[in-house]
TrEMBL record, chain A:
This is Inner membrane amino-acid ABC transporter permease protein YecS. It comes from the Bacteria. It is found in: Cell membrane. One of its GO terms (biological process) is amino acid transport. Keywords: Amino-acid transport, Cell membrane, Membrane, Transmembrane, Transmembrane helix, Transport. CDD domains: TM_PBP2.
UniProtKB/TrEMBL annotation, chain B:
This is Glutamine transport ATP-binding protein GlnQ. It is a peripheral membrane protein. Belongs to the ABC transporter superfamily. InterPro entries: AAA+_ATPase, ABC_ATPase_HisP-typ, ABC_transporter-like_ATP-bd, ABC_transporter-like_CS, MetN_ABC_transporter-like, P-loop_NTPase. Keywords: Amino-acid transport, ATP-binding, Cell membrane, Membrane, Nucleotide-binding, Transport. One of its GO terms (cellular component) is plasma membrane. It comes from Streptomyces lavendulae subsp. lavendulae. It is found in: Cell membrane.
Length: 337, 263
């Protein structure tokens, strides 16, 4: 008989519960139990390629772990220092703020772009055109030097009296400048993501809502956007991860984010590699959490779109463990068959 | 189904179409259509595809704006109001309020896939502020039971067959207690064995005295439920009358040609 791993790709009958082990010759009472058993094909090539890939992976891992230059003890030493954690916190805060503000502005831009008003449509198009056509770094440098363009900012009526005037450099610190610069750039991309999502919803949905007397804004909020989310979420998740890593660009503005914080440390002690490793591991950790979150948000918005959703990895694991425990129990129990 | 001699004279017509013209780009789709539908009657619109049937129906609840002419439902002009001797376009909210008094059932159901059946039916009465959430859900349960889906209120539309979905769509239209219900080829997207269940729901409405305007290709059904048959050809009504006359003794050559092909 073949080993279980050999037959794991043989599809179990769809009716079988998800956790039941695929290999169990002839469940009792199954039709055709007396038919000759089918011996699964052996996948020799697959085994060999898997072994080769695992060998390469092991070699890489060993070289990384045993390479003294990585200085893993230094990594451990700095991994949770307050300077690094403060940097991580600012990176998370920046990512969250930019994502929320960017998508709020982006949604507004998308609605403008899809509106019947040609002026709003053109303005939205122009905004997206400008902010997607210039590199983020260039935009950030512009915002950082905004004080040269507009030395003072004033609050007042258009062409009327000024109520309140402030020096631009005093109002806009590096962090606020970073938030503004990143948000404006992000919103141009978010606008396209949201617009694509709205366009992906069947126009019949809007028509049905109109025929029922639902207002435009309610139709958008209750009918169109919830369905658009299905195509928005995967791209937005992608953007969120991109933004998390993209915030590292603000280190050029001397904003104390994760990357800049480790740079400050290694500029003093010259342990460049282990400190970059600290930042890398934190970025990976946060991205992993975000990916898991995205999976579950996607499932939420997938409700009603198919006849049944597949179980989550956690549910699958639980079912598998229950099945394993039952089998163990059957083996160990006296007189168990 | 009911004969409406005296009652109709007392009440305004359920639907009045006054010289409606509609173009799509350079193509004329409706060419001066005028039509009167008496309250409580069933009118079936027949015609080849592309003859303007669906457009006419969509003009009735202002999903399409006619370029000329106008429509009145229950004596009230739709999408416009009279001011002196001209018609002024209404605000969006006023048009929406008018639409909510006209039921519309789509060929492709257009149910909201992310909402349960209960929420699909209860959405409009809540959104238009007519009923509380609680009342709307009670009504929705009642209506779903009436179309034979009282045990599936928590299901999502995609978990149902086409025929079941169309029955939900009818329940959704009924939730606003419309004076007129418009059906745009309600069985054209269905497998033949599912057509019957939808037609039987529409038949119940017809005998119940609701004013119905139906675009369909089911000639047998039209003969059974219609008080009036309207035959549309190239955006014009070429023949109109009770089924016994239009279907059995058609006068216009286009009607004869159409019937010989579909019967």
């Amino acid at each position: 008989m073949a080993t279980p791993s050999d037959v794991s790709d043989v599809p179990a009958t769809p009716a079988a519960p998800a956790g039941s082990p695929p290999k169990r010759p002839g469940p009792p009472g199954a039709p055709g139990a007396d038919a000759p058993p089918v011996v699964p094909r052996r996948h020799v090539g697959r085994l060999l390629s898997a072994a080769a890939a695992l060998l390469v992976l092991a070699m890489v891992l060993v070289s990384v772990v045993r390479n003294e230059a990585f200085q893993w003890e230094v990594v451990g030493q700095y991994f949770t220092t307050s300077a690094v954690l403060d940097g991580l916190l600012l990176t998370l805060w920046l990512t969250g703020a930019v994502m929320v503000l960017g998508f709020l502005l982006g949604t507004l831009l998308a609605v403008m772009r899809l509106s019947a008003n040609p002026v709003l449509r053109t303005l939205s198009w122009g905004y997206v055109w400008i902010f997607r056509s210039t590199p983020l770094l260039v935009q950030l440098l512009f915002w950082f030097n905004i004080g040269a363009l507009y030395p003072t900012l004033a609050l007042g009526l258009p062409y009327g009296p000024r109520l309140f005037t402030v020096q631009t450099v005093n109002l806009l610190g590096p962090t606020l400048t970073a938030v503004i610069g990143l948000t404006l750039h992000e919103s141009a991309y978010a606008a396209e993501v949201v617009r694509g999502g709205i366009l992906s919803v069947d126009p019949g949905q809007t028509e049905a809502a109109q025929a029922l007397g639902l207002s435009r804004s309610r139709t958008l909020r209750r009918i169109v956007v919830p369905q658009a989310m299905r195509s928005i979420v995967p791209t937005a998740g992608n953007m969120l991860i991109g933004t998390l890593k993209g915030t590292s660009i603000v280190s050029v503005l001397a904003v104390h984010d994760l990357l800049y914080s480790v740079q400050l440390v290694y500029n003093q002690n010259y342990r460049v590699i282990p400190l970059l490793m600290v930042a890398t591991l934190w970025y990976i950790a946060v991205t992993t959490v975000l990916s898991a979150g995205q999976y579950h948000v996607e499932r939420y918005y997938a409700r009603g779109t198919s006849r049944g959703l597949p179980p989550t990895p956690l549910q699958r694991l639980r079912v598998r463990l229950t099945g394993l425990r039952a089998r163990l129990h059957a083996v160990t129990a006296p007189g168990g068959r | 189904m009911t004969t409406t001699g005296i009652a109709a004279a007392a009440r305004p017509p359920a639907v009045e179409v006054h010289g409606v013209h509609k173009w799509f780009g350079g193509r004329r789709v409706l060419d001066g259509v005028s039509l009167t539908v008496a309250p409580g009657t069933v009118t079936v619109i027949l015609g080849r595809s592309g003859s303007g049937k669906s457009t006419l129906l969509r003009v009735l609840n202002h999903l399409e704006k006619p370029e000329a002419g106008h429509v009145s439902i229950g004596g009230e002009p739709i999408g416009v109001r009279r001011q002196g001797n001209r018609l002024r376009e209404l605000r969006e909210s006023a048009i929406l309020a008018q639409r909510s008094r006209i039921g519309f059932v789509f060929q492709n159901f257009n149910l909201f896939p992310h909402l349960t059946l209960l929420d699909n039916v209860a959405a409009a009465p809540v959104a238009t502020g007519r009923l509380s959430r609680q009342q709307a859900q009670t009504l929705a349960r009642e209506l779903l039971t009436r179309v034979g889906l009282g045990d599936r209120t928590g299901a999502y539309p995609r978990q149902l067959s086409g025929g079941q979905q169309q029955r939900v769509a009818i329940a959704r239209a009924l939730a606003l207690r419309p004076g007129v219900i418009l059906f745009d080829e309600p069985t054209s997207a269905l497998d033949p064995e599912l057509v019957g269940e939808v037609l039987s729901v529409i038949r119940d409405l017809a005998t119940g005295g609701t004013t119905l305007v139906i675009v369909t290709h089911e000639i047998g059904f039209a003969r059974e439920v219609a008080d009036e048959i309207v035959f549309l050809h190239e955006g014009r009504i070429v023949e109109q009358g009770p089924p016994a006359r239009v279907l059995d003794r058609p006068e216009h050559p286009r009607t004869r040609e159409f019937l010989s092909r579909v019967l």
